[in-house]
Inverse folding.
């Protein structure tokens, strides 16, 4: 609802969430990335809009003064899916000399421990690449309460996997 108060001709919406009901009747230009590759192309599009082939998207990106990512938690899910479905198979093929593409002892729909570091790095790099651009950046994210086991303090944090939840707000 708060995003609907932005000037429609100056804000670019990057919607990875399935629903955006408060924005339904607004005239914001919208990008709907479907894959992680789509997501990571967005900072480059904003940095160099002249390279965008679609004329309407090029004009919208050139006019934007703010970019909104709704939501970072859904964006991170696209990254996790890419790691599981694409990168993991390549890694296993590299490690087995092309003999296998499925790891043993890991559920195919879940991140393995070594995947979390890659996820953290990619999400942080995406956020960093957006925030380094000369525009306003707004990112929504699901949220959770996290209890610090050492201090007992509860913190309200972004709903992101592992250490990313505590590092991304920086």
């Amino acid at each position: 609802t708060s995003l609907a108060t932005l000037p429609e001709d100056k804000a670019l919406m990057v919607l990875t969430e399935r629903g955006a009901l408060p924005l339904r009747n607004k005239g914001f230009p919208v990008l709907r990335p479907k894959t992680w590759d789509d997501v990571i192309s967005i900072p480059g599009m904003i940095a160099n809009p002249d390279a965008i082939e679609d004329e309407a998207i090029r004009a919208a990106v050139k006019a934007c003064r703010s970019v909104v990512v709704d939501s970072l938690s859904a964006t991170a899910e696209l990254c996790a899916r890419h790691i599981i479905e694409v990168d993991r198979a390549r890694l296993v093929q590299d490690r087995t000399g092309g003999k296998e593409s499925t790891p043993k002892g890991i559920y195919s729909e879940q991140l393995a421990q070594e995947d979390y570091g890659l996820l953290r790095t990619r999400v942080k790099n995406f956020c960093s690449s957006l925030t380094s651009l000369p525009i306003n950046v707004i990112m929504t994210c699901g949220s959770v309460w996290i209890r610090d086991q050492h201090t007992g303090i509860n913190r309200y944090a972004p709903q992101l996997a592992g250490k990313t939840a505590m590092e991304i707000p920086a």
About this structure: Residues 72-95 form the longest helix (24 residues). The radius of gyration is 18 Å. DSSP finds five helices and six strands in the chain. The mean pLDDT is 85.
